[in-house]
Amino acid sequence: MVKPVKVGDMTTIKLENIAYGGDVVGRKDDFAIFVTGGVPGEVVKIKVTEVKRNYGRGKVVDVVAPVEERIDSECPKYDLCGGCQMQHIDYTAQLNYKQQMVEDAIERIAKLDDIKINQVKGMENPYLYRNKAQFPLGVEDEEVITGFYAAGSHKLIKVKDCQIQHPVINRIVDRAVKLIEDYNLSIYNEEIHQGLLRHLVVRVGVCTNQAMLVLVTKDEKFVKGQEIAHKLLEEVPELISVYQNVNPEQTNVVLGDKTALLAGQEYILDYIGPIKYQISPLSFFQVNSLQTKVLYDQVLEYAKLTGEEKVLDAYCGLGSISLYLANQAQEVYGIEVVPEAIEQAKENAKLNDINNCQFAVGKVKDVLPQLKNQFSPEVIVVDPPRKGCHEEVLEAFAKIKPQRIVYVSCKPTSLARDLKRLKDLGYYTEEIQPVDMFPQTYHIENVALIKKK
Ligand SMILES: C[S@@+](CC[C@H](N)C(=O)[O-])C[C@H]1O[C@@H](n2cnc3c(N)ncnc32)[C@H](O)[C@@H]1O
Q1: 385 lines ligand 1 (CB under 6 A)
Q2: 222 and 341 in one domain?
Q3: 239-260: per-residue pLDDT in tens?
Q4: CA of 393 to the centre of ligand 1 (A)
Q5: Same domain, yes or no, for 304 and 440?
Q6: Which biological process terms from the Gene Ontology are attached to this UniProt entry (predicted)?
Q7: DSSP-derived secondary structure for 170-221
Q8: Measuring from atom 11 of ligand 1, which residue has the nearest CA?
Q9: In Å, what is the CA distance from 280 to each residue of 10, 258, 266, 344, 418?
């Protein structure tokens, strides 16, 4: 079939529906083109960047007829940086489009049309919300810079005052970069695999204003490390903990295996509702603390606990959901594959005087069969990584015969696939509540209430 466009063409099209990922689909002679930077309904001039057998890709170079949902992005580097995909869309419209993405995934993949999908719960202020940032370091015009990689590339784009990071993060990064320059430290160059400093990782407890900085280095030897760490603690009042992490590998993974405290405290604290959590450099903790409360309250509502139930929290991380539910359950059992996270879950339980939680290290699919006869939960809460649950795990859930499963998911397509599998196993989904944990990006979290037939 002859394609109506080729790479590099400029063409004008009308945009139709938003796709998962934030691109908007338009058509040229029935040939679908996924366009970055558009809004449904508007007419745009695009540059075609890719042509495949069944579809193409392009990006907006000019808006010919805008729609009222289009706004000016707050970030001067928005067009270059790959971090946000929806900053050019008014927030109310962002929420509506995310709702469509969820509905579309459920209809197309799960093929379930009887599930109630509620209105997305959004944020009052959808900016400056991220409690964690990982900035690569680079050099531009002999100046040390931090920022993000451009979408789909390894070109570092200098970003100052990112609009979605917590303001304390931006301040710490500014000070750290200044000291790195003052001390004339070498910056890692990935092409030749040389240089000392690779990344800055910053975490903030949004409710406590305590912050942690991790300096990621290629080599273990970091002569001025402690001196710099102490200076930073003096200069930034919110900063209470500075670590070095060593990553000697040629890899895209940010953190290496060795982590050592350079100065200050071992962890920072944050609160989700009444529960206090210790956060260390390697802990998984939801990146939007304020919306995490909305998310966990939704889990509580769907779990419908009376104080009598045993609850299984599968993929529990550092026990955040387990502890949030514990006061309203008879007992909670958390399973997580990262041993350090389980150590921290136990610490967090002590910190909150919670005595009815047990935690096990291991893969959910391996731990579940061992649990048989020891722990039979009425409610299962499951919060897997983006790829969703292994089929074996869903089968094991069905064998346990809980009354309810509350499924927390950060990827609508894997959620849809798993809901379909659960239906075949005798569990139907009654309702889904999307929660916007990641404003300005295409990501959307969902909580599904699933009941035994
Ligand atoms: C999306 S996080 C959820 C964490 C936690 N529920 C929370 O809200 O903070 C998923 C967690 O699953 C863990 N994980 C990944 N694969 C796993 C597996 N096969 N078995 C157990 N845990 C796993 C990850 O280490 C991570 O902590």
Answers
A1: yes
A2: no
A3: 999 999 999 999 989 999 999 9
A4: 13
A5: yes
A6: rRNA base methylation
A7: HHHHHHHHHHHHHTTPPBPBTTTTB-SEEEEEEEEETTTTEEEEEEEESSS-
A8: 315
A9: 49, 13, 7, 9, 32
pTM for this model (two decimals):
0.92
Q: Are residues 102 and 138 in the same domain?
A: no
Mutate to test the pocket of ligand 1, among 300, 336, 444 (most ligand atoms within 8 A of CB): 336
301 annotated binding-site participant:
no
Nearest atom in ligand 1 to 295's CA: 8
- Residue 437 in contact with ligand 1 by CB distance below 6 A: no
Same domain for 107 and 200, yes or no, is no
Kindly report, residue by residue over 22-51, the tens digit of the pLDDT: 999 999 999 999 999 999 999 999 999 999
Q: Within this chain, do residues 63 and 119 fall inside the same structural domain, yes or no?
A: no
DSSP letter (8 states) at residue 70: B
Question: Is 336 annotated as contributing to ligand binding?
Answer: yes
Q: Is residue 378 part of an annotated ligand binding site?
A: no
- The domain of 319 spans 96-124+288-452
Task: Measure 313 CA to ligand 1 centroid, in angstroms.
Answer: 10
What local confidence, expressed as pLDDT, does residue 81 receive? 81
- Taking CA atoms, 429 is separated from 307, 387, 421, 424, in Å, by 24, 19, 11, 11
- Residue 433: CB within 6 Å of ligand 1? no
Pick the closest to residue 146 from 200, 90, 101 (CA basis): 200
9 is in an annotated binding site: no
How many domains does the chain divide into?
A: 3
Which amino acid, residue 334? G
Give the Å distance between the CA of 42 and the centre of ligand 1. 40
Query: Is it the case that residue 92 has pLDDT exceeding 80?
Result: yes
Tell whether 196 and 252 lie within a shared domain. Answer: yes
Provide mean pLDDT across the span 441-452. Answer: 97
pLDDT single digits (tens) 342-377: 999 999 999 999 999 999 999 999 999 888 778 899
